[in-house]
Amino acid sequence: MIIDTLLYSSHLISSNNPTITALTLGGTGAIFSLFGAILYDSHKKLMKRGIQVEGTVISIEHERSNKDSMVLNYPVIRYRTLQNELITKKHNVGISRYSYKEGDSVNVVYDPADNSLFTLNDSSSKSVPLSFILLGLTLLAASIIIFIVKAG
Question: Sign (positive/negative) of CA torsion 135, 126, 48, 91?
Answer without folding.
Answer: positive
